[in-house]
Structure formats: C-alpha cells, structure tokens
Amino acid sequence: MQTPDASPPRAAAFFDLDKTIIATSSATAFSRPFYAGGLITRRDVVRTAYAQFLFLVGGADEDQTERLRAHLSAMVAGWDVAQVSQIVAETLHLHIEPTVFAEALALIEEHHAAGHDVVIVSASGAEVVEPIAALLGADHVIASRMEVADGRYTGNIDFYAYGPHKATAIAELAEREGYDLAASHAYSDSITDVPMLEAVGSAAVVNPDRTLRRLAAERGWDVLRFERPVTLRSRLPEPRHGLPVLAALVLAAALAVLLVRRRRGPA
User: Fold this and answer.
1) In the prediction, which pLDDT does 173 show?
2) Looking at the domain assignment, is residue 245 inside a domain?
3) pTM, whole model, 2 decimals?
C-alpha cells in the first residue's frame, strides 16, 4: 500500500517592526497620547522625542538603546494596563497607520498568498505590538512582556524580545507551530537582529546601514529598500507626480512660519 505524500513543511515569515514594517519607533510613537492621558510628563515627551530622532536617523547605538529601555521600564511603573491598552487602541490610526511601509505590506501579502504565517517580532511591549500586528493581519506576535501586578506595571520585564532573545522565541514558536525554519524567512533593519536573521533559511535586511549592508553581503542576504509609508485606512495609490514625504513636511512647516509671521505683522 502506497503511503500518501508527506505535506510540505510549514514556513513562516518573521518581521521586525520598527523601521522594517513601520517608519517609526513603536515604543515612543505614543508619547503624546500618553502625555494627554496623564501618564507621562512634558519632560518625558521631550526625552522620548529625542530618543526617537536618534533611532530614526540611525544614531542610537546599543548602549543608548539599552538606556532608553531602562528609562521606559522605570517610566511605566505604576501605569494602569487597561488605560494603556485603551490609549493605544484609540490612537493607533493617528500614530501608526500612516507610517506603514507600502513595500512591507506587499511583502506580507506575498507571504500570506504563499501560505506562510506572518510573525511580528519586536522589542516593544506586547500591549503596543499586538494591536499593530492585528492591523497588519499577522498570525503571531513575539514582543516584550512587562510584569503586571494588580492591573499595573511593576517596572520589571518578564521577557525582553531583543537580540538573541528574539531568536530563542522564534525557535520556541517554530517548535509549537511546526515551522521549518530552514524554509522560513526573516526581515530586519537592525544589526541587533542578526541572531533572528541567522535563525532562518532566507534572510533579508531592510534599509541597512553600512555595517549591516556589509554583513549582508558576507552572508548572502538580500538587501531591500522600503521608502514609501502609506495610510492603511485608504491604501490609495500615491499621485504619480506627488511631492516626496520630506518635501511635503518642509512645505507645511514653511507655510506655518509664513502664517505666524502674517499674524504678527511686519517686524
């Protein structure tokens, strides 16, 4: 009696979140609504804004990233978990939806069409990452988990999804879900995610800096450029001759200055 052919191995696509799927830092993107909700001070807003600037321009090294993590951990101590979740849910469309890379969305759709599960892997907290992952249609989430007692954060971290810990969590998820990691894919912009990229058979780096680009060349990893954030709610094609995002922001700032000067009158 002939045995039926074995089903092909299950594969997954593991995506870093910040600067890979979204063009911002998910950990600091909600600083203003947290301020409006009374969770943080104006000084905290300024500090997180500066940290996000360093992150976006690639100026945050591993030590600065670790200091930001420690600062955020201490800052959230005592926060009400339900309030945080409510703020994230209510402001997700303002702070995350417009920052999603169109190229990342297309890649996620390609993997789903190929029958691959999509997994978001992020060092940010699960309360932030899980709603974003749901918005993107991801199948699973690997994220940092803060310790909670009596409905509030203690400031301690149960699991920090960073560096080699991402690779460990990926291996554990693959064991539970039956993924063949040799047939799976991973995408990240960060040199700290090398263990994650090494955990799969097909890796690609996104918008890499010089160090990561050189490593990708050595390892034979693909290099991808994600440059076009879109608004998920509309998903409309951009005008063919539209201004680049940066130019549009500069124009808006210039108009604002002109309006202020006009209101003040001649100097």
Assistant:
1) 98
2) no
3) 0.76
